[in-house]
Amino acid sequence: YVLADARIAEMCLWTTWLHVGDLVCDGISCVVSLEVTPFFECVGSVLQINKLGVRYAEMYVAHLNLERDLNDLCEISVEGELAASYDVKPSSVVPQSKPTEISR
User: Which of 18, 40, 7, 39 is nearest to 102 (CA)?
Assistant: First the structure.
């Protein structure tokens, strides 16, 4: 099951990813999706946010590489770790880039 506020297939923003299978809803749900190109253009237009995004992507993929069971529902959270490395609040961290590949 997918929990409330879960991110589905976030990894496809940060690395090359192949979706396998279908996601089926058995109740009322709300899905928010974003267009990749405008997302990267918007976030990439601010240098400091761009730098945070690159670091977020690096950290996210590093954690993804530690996962034993890779799937579209991997619940990886690096916001707190990223915020700590920049001494900012997690809610102010916004990711941006797709700089790296998973190692599998």
Answer: 18
Q: What is the DSSP string of the chain?
A: -PPTT--SSTHHHHS-----S----SS--------HHHHHHHHHTSHHHHHHHHHHHHHHHHHHHH-SS--TT-----HHHHHHHHTS-GGG------------
Which residue, 30, 39, 25, 35, is CA-closest to 4? 30
Which of 98, 9, 93 shows the shortest CA–CA distance to 61? 98
Per-residue pLDDT, 22 = 86
Token pair 């997302």 is found at 39
Q: Evaluate if residue 74 carries a pLDDT over 90.
A: no
* Mean pLDDT confidence for 63-79: 83
Q: Which amino acid is at 99?
A: P
Q: In whole angstroms, what is the distance from residue 36 CA to residue 77 CA? A: 20
The answer, as to whether pTM is greater than 0.85, is no
